[in-house]
Each structure stands twice: as C-alpha cells, then as structure tokens.
Amino acid sequence: MRVIAIGCEHTGKTTLLEGLMKWGDERGIHHHLDDHFSIPDRQFLKKEEQEEMVRLSPVLKERFQRFQVVYHVRLINHYEHILLGGFHIEEDIYGPLYYYPGRKSAHPPEYYEAEFPPDAILVLLTARPEVIEKRMRETPHDRPIVPAGDIPMVLEKFEQAYRASWVHHKIRIDTSDLAPAQLLQKFLDTSVPHLNTRDLLTRMAGATGLK
C-alpha cells in the first residue's frame, strides 16, 4: 500500500503508521516509513540536531521542507509499500502557520499530487477538539506544534485540504473513541475498496490464512 496519513497533532498518525508497519512485518510486507515532515524531525534526528533545525531561519525551513516533499514524491512512486505521515498537506498547513509565518508554501498540494501514483491512499485522521486537548495534556510531545487554542482552526484546515485533494482514494477516520488496535483495524476494514489488485490479493490471502 501507498498510504499518506494526515491530521492535526494527537489524532493518531504515528500510531496508525507504526501499527501498519508492524502489521506488514508480521505478514512479510515491508513498508518504507517516513514520518518526519514536522519540524523538528523526531524520527531520525538526535536532540541536538533537532535544536539546530528549530533554529533555522524561516527561509531555510521553507526551502528544506520543499526539497524533502519533492524528494518524497519520487519515493511514493518508487516504493510499492510506503507510509508517509503528514507529507505535503501537513506542510501546506503547518508551514505558513508555524515554520515560516507570513510566507506561503511554494506550491499547493495539487502541484505534488499531479505526480502521485493512482493507487495512493489519503487518510485523514480527526478527533473532537476536547479529545485532542486531553491527549495533549496526558501525552505531551517534546516539541508540540499546535497550540491548544488553534486546534479547531487546524482541524478545519485539514478537513478542507482533504476535501480539495486530488488523491482519488480517500478515507476519513475519527479517532476520538478508538484505541490503537481499533484504529488499525478500522483502517484495514475501510481501506479494502481502495486497494489495488496486488494489495487486495495479499489482504484476501491473509484473511484465508494463506499469508
């Protein structure tokens, strides 16, 4: 599968992608996982490297983010199984709000989506604002991006971007009342109509105990 998971902080993107990674590994399917589009990158960078990234000027942040989005357009075409967290849509929302205020993203999401493979699946994860705020308090990120007061606005921006996206295969999941295992199963169930032939046969083989 080629999956792009988007949504406000604390809606479950990393939880879903890590769950899919484990699910795939258990079935001999290795997904390429990139969940590092937020600033600072928490997937690969050490603490001191994160500090350096945060200190970059707005101009350099915008340029770096643009370069890595372009690079991952290549990757989503290269890998048959790839999981991307946030990616181009998150950048189009978080960039002008938090990384380089006052500047627009160099290109709108559809600029990149025009080059996406046709079997890409866009997953919008959402949750009630009060649930996200509760998660922020109970399991805070080391470097939070979205202030509590911005939650409704950011949720709406992701909703609008999801609706406007050129990606054909779309799934929307409200994670407000879902445990991690339930979120994974919800995605697996709702993604079936969006699978390409190869992935559908793999899923069917797993369901019948052949894989």
Description:
With 211 residues, the protein is α/β, with parallel strands linked by helices. It has one domain (2-203): P-loop containing nucleotide triphosphate hydrolases (Rossmann fold). It has helices at residues 13-25, 47-54, 58-78, 87-99, 109-113, 129-138, 151-164, 180-191, 197-207, and strands at 2-6, 32-34, 82-85, 121-126, 169-174. A five-stranded parallel sheet has the order 2-3-1-4-5, sandwiched between helices. The mean pLDDT is 93.
Task: Please give a quick description of this structure.
This protein is of the alpha/beta class. It contains nine helices and five strands, in the order E-H-E-H-H-E-H-H-E-H-H-E-H-H.
Major sheet size, sense and barrel closure? 5 strands, parallel
The residue ranges in which pLDDT falls below 50 over 5 or more consecutive positions are none
Cα end-to-end separation:
16 Å
How would you name the oligomeric state of the polypeptide chains in this document?
single chain
The CATH homologous superfamily is called P-loop containing nucleotide triphosphate hydrolases
Determine the mean pLDDT.
Answer: 93
Percent helix: 40-55%
Stated plainly, the CATH topology is called Rossmann fold
* Top CATH class: Alpha Beta
Judging by the overall fold, what is the CATH architecture?
3-Layer(aba) Sandwich
C-alpha Rg, in Å?
Answer: 17 Å
Number of helices: 9
Count of distinct strands: 5
Indicate the proportion of strand residues: 5-15%
Q: H/E order of the elements? A: EHEHHEHHEHHEHH
Number of domains: 1
**In order across it, which strands form the biggest sheet?**
2-3-1-4-5
